[in-house]
Design goal:
binds 3-isopropylmalic acid, 467 residues, binds iron/sulfur cluster, single chain, globular, 3-isopropylmalate dehydratase activity, Aconitase, domain 3, alpha/beta
């Protein structure tokens, strides 16, 4: 019997098979940001230990950093303190840090691929749940908590409970105007926020094969919102082409040798998965959330469901509470929902391809009166690329605020970019929990083209709705 991709990577990293279903895994790359790490460093210091492999560790500042004019920025004290801590900790332990203002700074899951730090077959951990993004490269990448960060810092290993394999077969063909974000939202609506629990998802099928690396990253990013620990895509030509363009890649015969090895990071044809889900891409349309978890989503063409129509008791209760928080009524058409803010960015949809999709819709149009459109590149490199392609002009002429900085921004409300209570946003990010984008703020998760069309129309819309 063959192995799944996840099993292959797992087996290659087992340092010690544990009893009780937990194995000690070797970690190839450990990524840090300013949230959730100060305690780990304090504990490390208290134990008198050093960082075992600073050369396999890398850090960035992204969650708490401002995105406004960096020179005169009023940097909130709490955020500045967090940055001061990661700066001091990285300096003390010899860990490379991509600081605010550096040309390589950005959201952790955006800069790691850009810098060519993630490669097929690697094990990667980070103090952040959306580390799943990196699975797009055929790597086993997942989020860890503060205590585990200390363990990896000290030993470069981590005890991890064995996980099951869930195959998500995306069949059919992707209709025009439908993105990886819509696929992910449709999947989560189908299997629920707990559908992937205890599993590693592998996305398979022709539709996935045809997705760009950026789109695969979006898909893998949202794996954690389906409750799964990691999400991955097997290596193919698309992966290899992307990697060949990354900095510090080998060249010539050395690259060819690596590529041959990387190609082995696919599931064997006869691999057995514990569970299989089929998602028919042909039936997917632009998806939008109406509630306060990512599974509370419907097609933009639909209406908000009546809680009473939902399958189980828990879902009904959650829907009632969500509608109250969101200030919405059952039966309301999604297209009738007015919004006042649009946020384009985050590790889900803050890459160059996302910004291109937004620019395509904005080109020659104006953002609706009373709507704020904020666009934040996922990294400084993405921003430079956007400028070099003239996207900044399109954004500015449309009336958008293309922020000078890059980072998590309004995705999480952990910096100055926040909504006020009662404000309603269409957001290309990945979480719509209560208060996620600011206390009392309401979030509708959407794809980049829907975000752009919504900014123009002033209510939830797809590009096809615009005249
Ligand atoms: C702050 C961080 C730990 C958190 C995460 O783990 O995902 C954040 O990135 C998020 O998206 O909620
Ligand atoms: S962009 Fe949002 S989801 Fe991604 S790491 Fe930052 S806070 Fe988390």
């Amino acid at each position: 019997m063959g192995s799944t991709l996840a099993q292959k990577i797992w087996d290659q990293h087992v340092v010690r098979r544990g009893e009780g279903g937990e194995d000690l895994l070797y970690i190839d790359l450990h990524v840090l940001h300013e949230v959730n790490t100060p305690q780990a460093f304090d504990d490390l210091r208290a134990a008198g230990r050093s960082v075992r492999r600073p050369d396999l560790t890398v850090a960035t500042e992204d969650h708490n950093t401002p995105t406004g004019k960096l020179d005169g920025a009023v940097w909130e004290l709490a955020g500045r303190r967090q940055s001061n801590l990661i700066r001091a900790n990285c300096a003390e332990f010899g860990i490379p840090l991509h600081r605010l203002g550096d040309s390589s700074q950005g959201i952790v899951h955006v800069i790691v691929p850009e810098l060519g730090l993630v490669r097929p077959g690697m094990s990667v951990v980070c103090c952040d749940s959306h580390t799943t993004t990196l699975g797009a490269f055929g790597a086993l990448a997942f989020g860890i908590g503060t205590g585990q960060v200390e363990h990896v810092l000290a030993t470069q290993t981590l005890p991890v409970r064995r996980l099951k394999d869930l195959a998500v077969d995306v069949t059919g063909a992707l209709p025009g105007g439908v993105t990886a974000k819509d696929l992910a939202l449709a999947l989560i609506a189908q299997i629920g926020t707990g559908g992937g629990q205890g599993h590693i998802i592998e996305y398979r099928g022709d539709v996935v094969r045809q997705l760009s690396m950026e789109a695969r990253m979006t898909l893998c990013n949202l794996s954690v919102e389906a409750g799964s620990r990691a999400g991955l895509v097997g290596v193919d030509d698309t992966t290899l082409t992307y990697l060949a363009g990354c900095p510090d890649m080998p060249v010539g015969t050395e690259l060819a040798h690596q590529q041959q090895l990387w190609r082995s990071f696919v599931s064997d044809a006869d691999a057995v998965f514990d569970k299989r889900v089929v998602l028919d891409a042909s039936a997917v349309t632009p998806y939008v959330t109406w509630g306060t978890n990512p599974a509370q989503a419907v097609s933009l063409a639909d209406r908000i469901p009546a809680p009473g129509d939902l399958a189980d008791e828990a879902q009904r209760g959650a829907a009632g509470r969500a509608l109250e928080y969101m200030g919405l009524r059952p039966g309301q058409a999604m297209r009738d929902i007015d919004i006042d803010t649009v946020f384009v960015g985050s590790c889900t949809n803050g890459r160059i391809e996302d910004l291109r999709q937004v620019a395509e819709v904005l080109d020659g149009r104006r953002v609706a009166d009373g709507v704020d459109l904020m666009i934040v590149a996922g990294s400084a490199a993405v921003r430079r690329k956007a400028v070099s392609e003239g996207l900044d002009r399109v954004f500015t002429e449309a009336g958008a605020d293309f922020r000078p900085g890059s980072g998590c921004s309004m995705c999480c409300g952990l910096n100055e970019d926040r909504l006020r209570p009662g404000q309603r946003a269409a957001s290309t990010s990945n979480r719509n929990f209560e208060g996620r984008q600011g206390k009392g703020a309401r979030t509708h998760i959407v794809s980049p083209p829907v975000a752009a069309a919504t900014a123009i129309a002033g209510r939830l819309s797809a590009p096809a709705d615009l005249t």
